[in-house]
Amino acid sequence: MLQKTQETTESVEPGSNAPLLEMRDITKMFPGVVALSHVNLVVRQGEIHLLLGENGAGKSTMIKTIMGINKPEGGEMLWMGKPVKLNTIHDAYQLGIAVIYQELSNIPCLGVVENMYLGNEKKKGPFIDWKEQKRCAKIALERVGLGNLLDVPMENLGMGQRQLVEIARAVDRNAKLIIMDEPTSSLSRSEIDNLLDLMLELNRQGISILFITHKLDEAKKVGHVVTVLKDGKNSGPTLNVEDVSEDQIIKLMVGRELDEKYPRRSVQIGEEMFRCENLCSDKFDNISFHVRKGELLGVFGLVGAGRTETMRAIFGTYPLVEGDIFIEGRKGKVKSARDAIDKGIVLLTENRKEEGLVLIHNIVENGTIVTMNQFKNKFGLIDNKKRTAIVKKYGKDLNLRPLQPEKRAMDFSGGNQQKVVIMKWLLSGAKVFIFDEPTKGVDVAAKVEIYNIMNNLLEQGASIIMVSSEIQEILGMSDRIMVMYEGLETGIVNNDETVDQEQILTLATGGKVNER
Ligand SMILES: Nc1ncnc2c1ncn2[C@@H]1O[C@H](COP(=O)(O)OP(=O)(O)OP(=O)(O)O)[C@@H](O)[C@H]1O
């Protein structure tokens, strides 16, 4: 439960208060890209301000500029009405600005309190004042509902709780503005609800929040005002959230209305392509399912259901205790990821930055990393011209932005990084595509592009197994849905008009199988 403290202040009316942070006429360039062009952003005291935009619109660049990490070429920053110039992130902390990223920066083997004061230890003379650290940590942790977790190592906490510790750290530093950059993308449904409640509670306590997200439903639940960026520019003025519909926000982000969130496909579903029987490991038990040519099998389950481990086992990267795999009717064993790729099974992992890409390598290198043999000439040497040409072609088809094959993967926005991972697997000519959370951190328009890519694959006769935590995505894209709960398969249902969200959620929380 969230707790109010003595520091709780009167709730404040958003939009009518004095500006806390003003970013005026900000321009930031990178080689070949104008990431921000004359952008204005005013965050007022006591408001939850949404900063939205497509992948690559410039949101992260703006955050890094606010935090003193990026040095803009033009514009100025004002804090409580006074011009400020930040040289490092510590200057931002000093002012009272904190940032919570989706990828958390804490150290798992250290305790909660040690993590909270890492690099900012409370001192008594030359020594760390452990007692004082613990006292202050307790107050801050109570404000985020974690008062009982003082002595626990970070690695024992779930993702949602780790994020709350980061927020407690910000609260302890008396942050007046907390920037949250896609904070919900790795959280379970209940953790998301908890975080959104906490945002509202912190806001009631007088803290302003700048909230960056691609999930418009969550944004609308908590936001007071919204600023949309498009191609590095303001897409219109800041608006009151209650005056603007989700469709209008999408139009500001994308520049047009989206016809269909989940594009239709007309595919003749064919014979069985892949089947597994009685797969068992330490994280799942007795999993059996099949997927046919041209079919998309959605896999739904809450955090800890064993979905990801099951998919990794099929791909040869998670130890299988027993079970059989059949590809096009033939029984086979997958010994490793390389073996899976050779057999036509590929896995797009949920964390693209750690497992999907080599971030310091460019797009040509990443896109062709598993298919280098295709580019060997008759002397056995890699034909780099051919490699670049193919990557350019696929990049164009996938609407990769910017279409710069020599640019490092780390310098692309999240959604465009995801397209590079998809490109890598498209080039492999696989038959069975396992997509684990394919649209995580991807904007609304790019989501539709990814769904279209999936539909194309299905039309060409591939099979897709799509793991997703977004129930709407599961219902919008799947032919059949398999639901898992605590390592067990609780049902496989045809996704027809008889199926609804409630039924899937019942299965995902251990309910009974209705249909097979
Ligand atoms: N360090 C960098 N070097 C080169 N280009 C960069 C760098 N950082 C960002 N960019 C480019 O600046 C543009 C804006 O990127 P930014 O990461 O700010 O987008 P974003 O709105 O945060 O996207 P996403 O929602 O995908 O995170 C993109 O074209 C990106 O490729």
From TrEMBL:
UniProt domain ABC transporter: residue ranges: 21-256, 267-511
InterPro entries: AAA+_ATPase, ABC_carbohydrate_import_ATPase, ABC_transporter-like_ATP-bd, P-loop_NTPase
Keyword check for Nucleotide-binding: yes
Domain of life: Bacteria
PROSITE patterns documented for this protein: ABC_TRANSPORTER_2
Keywords: ATP-binding, Nucleotide-binding, Repeat, Transport
A molecular-function term among this protein's GO annotations: ATP binding
SUPFAM superfamilies xref list: P-loop containing nucleoside triphosphate hydrolases
Full protein name: Sugar ABC transporter ATP-binding protein
Biological source species: Sinanaerobacter chloroacetimidivorans
